[in-house]
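Quick one, tokens below. Sequence please?
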């Protein structure tokens, strides 16, 4: 990236060029200009990504220059520098969409950090433009083919709004432009997009879903007869049209191999994780029932993403009445109580593997596992006086209102995060107390309360009081008093500051109360203590 520094003061420009490690920021070149005319010449000669510009300059202000830049180099980010805090300048800079506004004399570390953020913005915008260009072919196709007549046939067929039988299927499909032959059967492959590997806007997600369908057409249908459709529920289905001879020659390995290649290609080129669910050849009028079976298979799949699943491999014995192999959550609670987080996480993983190994169990079994785990966690939190809401705010990756896990992988991640968060709150107490001591030391002059400290470390106030006394031997109130009086003693004995000012510095506006507290700790009033330390006594004013 290229940076341009514009300032009518030569030493200011040279200072910025020398003080910042531009190479470590990834800046290719740093140019300089001393007025608006020189700056425009630089823009006309090369691309400028970041402009650092003084506002008050002769022969055209920085605001005038930014107006020109917005018109001729709109991708440039501008950081304004000024020695005057005039609100009108700031207001105009905001109106012109400057990146930041900094007061002179500028601190170079702060300027470097601002330049880094501006570069990240430029890079992000550049990457977005590249992505949009790569989406463009799909987007144009998507617009042209968004509503095809054949889609209406599949919508109606899957929703059972059109009534067909074996003899009328080909004729009815032909009315919608679908080229089925007499005797054709359909092999459905349900494509389930489970995760986009980066954030997408609504528009981009629609375009990428279209790309997924086009890729399915190219890789799953390929040279065979068939179509790829999106149902009313947003589900993508590839449909292979098979004559009796084609069905007889159909290779299960070929279909499976094509699905595996498709899954890998979507992961690599379309940044998504998906699974394929292969049904069984069926007559057109029976397609709705087969579609429902594939949806149920997807719903009950507890495996990780990027998997190939076949309806023919599902166990035929019913799971109704069977109880899933749930762990003994009471034992798990004991492991959590004893601080054996690593052992408990191993138990969690083993139990989930056991659940996933039995294909008779699906989403209902995972839901029962999730509910049992939640009951164990909330019982333990209540027993220990911890607050779930405070843990959720504690930066441990826990998310308020997150959806229940849908796969074994999600359940393992969810369970491990909760176990880790509770373990850290209960068994890494030394770091909690150390953080509280540091916080108190920085806020001795403020009205620090137990509730403030509890919120700072995300613990229940009552539990925090017990923890603090256990580690320090003092209540929070006594510790605060001791620290304030220790600081007062240091200031009284080592400085000539008026004692009344020392009291105010430590949050005591009532001097008499301060004196009583000091006497309580050191058995002498502040004036006597100062006299003993060798300073002349003041009268507390």
């Amino acid at each position: 990236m290229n940076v341009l520094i514009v300032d009518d003061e030569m030493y200011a420009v040279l200072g910025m060029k020398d003080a910042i490690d531009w190479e470590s920021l990834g800046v290719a070149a740093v140019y300089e200009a001393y007025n608006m005319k020189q700056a425009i010449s630089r823009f006309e000669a090369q691309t400028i990504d970041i402009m650092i510009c003084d506002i008050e300059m002769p022969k055209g202000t920085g605001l005038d220059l930014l107006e020109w830049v917005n018109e001729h180099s709109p991708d440039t980010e501008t950081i304004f520098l000024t020695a005057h805090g005039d609100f009108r300048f700031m207001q105009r800079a905001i109106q012109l969409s400057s990146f930041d506004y900094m007061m002179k004399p500028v601190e170079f570390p702060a300027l470097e950090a601002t330049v880094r953020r501006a570069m990240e913005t430029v890079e992000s915008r550049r990457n977005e433009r590249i992505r949009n260009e790569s989406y463009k072919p799909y987007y144009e196709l998507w617009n042209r083919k968004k509503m095809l007549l054949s889609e209406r046939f599949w919508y109606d067929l899957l929703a059972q709004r059109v009534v067909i039988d074996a003899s009328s299927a080909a004729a009815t499909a032909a009315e919608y432009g679908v080229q089925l032959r007499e005797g054709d059967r359909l092999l459905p492959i349900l494509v389930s997009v489970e995760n986009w590997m980066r954030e997408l806007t609504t528009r981009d997600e629609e375009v990428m879903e279209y790309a997924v369908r086009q890729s399915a057409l190219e890789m799953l249908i390929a040279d065979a007869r068939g179509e790829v459709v999106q149902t009313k529920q947003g589900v993508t289905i590839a449909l292979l049209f098979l004559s009796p001879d084609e069905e007889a020659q159909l290779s299960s390995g070929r279909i499976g191999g094509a699905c595996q290649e498709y899954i890998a290609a979507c992961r690599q080129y379309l940044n998504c994780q998906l699974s394929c669910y292969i049904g069984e050849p069926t007559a057109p009028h029976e397609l709705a029932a087969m579609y429902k079976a594939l949806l149920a298979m997807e719903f009950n799949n507890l495996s990780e993403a990027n998997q190939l699943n076949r309806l023919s491999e599902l166990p035929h014995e019913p799971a109704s009445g069977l109880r899933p192999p749930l762990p003994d959550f009471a034992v798990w609670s004991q492991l959590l109580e004893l601080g054996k987080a690593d052992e408990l996480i191993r138990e969690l993983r083993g139990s989930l593997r056991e659940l996933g190994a039995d294909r008779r169990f699906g989403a209902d079994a995972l839901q029962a596992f999730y509910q049992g785990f939640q009951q164990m966690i909330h019982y333990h939190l209540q027993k220990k006086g911890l607050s779930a809401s405070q843990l959720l705010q504690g930066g441990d990756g826990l998310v308020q209102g997150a959806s229940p896990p849908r796969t074994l992988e999600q359940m393992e991640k969810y369970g491990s995060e909760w176990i880790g968060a509770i373990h850290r709150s209960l068994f890494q107490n030394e770091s909690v107390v150390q953080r509280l001591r540091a916080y108190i030391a920085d806020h001795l002059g403020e009205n620090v309360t137990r509730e403030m400290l509890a919120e700072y470390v995300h613990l229940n106030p009552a539990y925090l009081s017990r923890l603090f006394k256990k580690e320090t031997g003092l209540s929070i109130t006594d510790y605060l008093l001791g620290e304030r009086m220790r600081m007062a003693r240091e200031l009284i004995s080592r400085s000539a500051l008026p004692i009344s000012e020392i009291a105010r510095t430590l949050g005591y506006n009532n001097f008499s109360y301060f004196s009583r507290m000091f006497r309580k700790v050191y058995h002498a009033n502040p004036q006597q203590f100062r006299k003993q330390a060798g300073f002349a006594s003041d009268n507390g004013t």
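Residues 537-541 have pLDDT under 50 and may be disordered. Residues 98 and 254 are 57 Å apart (CA to CA).
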